[in-house]
Design brief:
homodimer; Arc Repressor Mutant, subunit A; Tetracycline Repressor, domain 2; 2 domains; DNA-binding
DNA sequence: GTCTATATCGCGATAGAC
DNA sequence: GTCTATCGCGATATAGAC
């Protein structure tokens, strides 16, 4: 029997999400989150670097997934093929099936400038992971950066369209359309 | 004889830049900035929303410039033409001739996560300005977003290359190369 | 776990500008 | 007189140090 109830991190996360939903992000203090989880403020900051991070804690997994995919792709694979396959895996693993939760988070992020900045940082981190993957595959710096940034653009524009739409279109189908649109634009 | 020395905003900005250079961003407190400018902390926050904003205060002008350019372009102009012309104007107006200062700012931004986030937000604001410009020209939402994000990618990847290079290449020439590279990639 | 620095913002008063 | 910039004081929350 342990001194602490388990899953402190999860409880903090849940408490935070609940309070954000109830009273908004800015109006929710860290002590309030910690109290609801039955923990101290100090413990909160041991699990999350700051209040914003609660909302993006598991976004880092996307970068890890991307790194694995890119390292595992055949040596001869074309960059564009890698991107298409990678976006498919990303859509399937990290987005599909979470539409409602992602919509909800999007609203929260829209309500606070600080959250928007953190969101952008996660996006930038994903771009870096992709860029590093291409660098590791021997591409030049500029080309790797260009491909990485464009990949992330595809993800974000597609996800936005997907979250806006009420039909049952698959995210990955939208990604395909966006890629086609991009090629039409710059072909 | 006035009660206040004029240019409070400029003095605050200069004091901040000096102190950031001397002791770093995180180590510089707002009271210290205000004191060096001969003002109070409260006055600092009336001019700048937060400590980070001092470094990016005039980035908003880029969005204004973009909005003007896009509104002024001929109705029949192709999106890609508008982008090419816009990036040329942007390079000329906001980057060319400021290489040393921009390099210095980049170092500062690299040193602090909060500054990185703010930098990304300014980048996002530029993308929004471009997207809005295309929307106003009647393009669909997805197409406008795709073109805007790609434009900003071109700017940032080009600027990074430009700041890294020690030769005298013009930023706009690098932009041209990047656009060509992008077309080669997705053509 | 406790303590504390410092960012940030609200409020009322004041001093010149127009 | 009204308007705006500034000051001075204070309150609170974040975040990090000890």
């Amino acid at each position: 029997m342990s001194r602490w109830r388990p899953d402190a991190r999860q409880r903090l996360q849940q408490a935070a999400l609940d309070l954000f939903a109830e009273q908004g992000f800015a109006e929710t203090t860290v002590p309030a989150i910690a109290a609801r989880a039955g923990l101290t403020t100090r413990t909160f900051f041991r699990h999350f670097a700051d209040k914003r991070e609660v909302l993006f804690a598991d976004d880092a997994e996307a970068s890890v997934l991307v790194a694995q995919l890119m390292a595992g792709a055949p040596a001869a694979a074309e960059p564009l093929t890698i991107i298409r396959e990678g976006l498919r895996a990303l859509a399937e693993n990290r987005f599909e099936g979470r539409k409602a939760a992602l919509r909800h988070r999007r609203e929260l992020v829209r309500s606070d400038a600080g959250l928007q900045e953190r969101d952008l940082r996660k996006r930038a981190a994903l771009a870096e992971a992709i860029r590093d993957g291409f660098l590791a595959r021997g591409l030049g710096a500029a080309r790797a950066a260009l491909l990485a940034e464009t990949s992330v653009t595809l993800v974000y524009v597609s996800v936005a369209e997907w979250l806006d739409s009420d039909d049952d279109r698959k995210l990955d189908d939208i990604v395909g359309e966006m890629l086609a649109a991009l090629r039409a634009e710059f072909g």
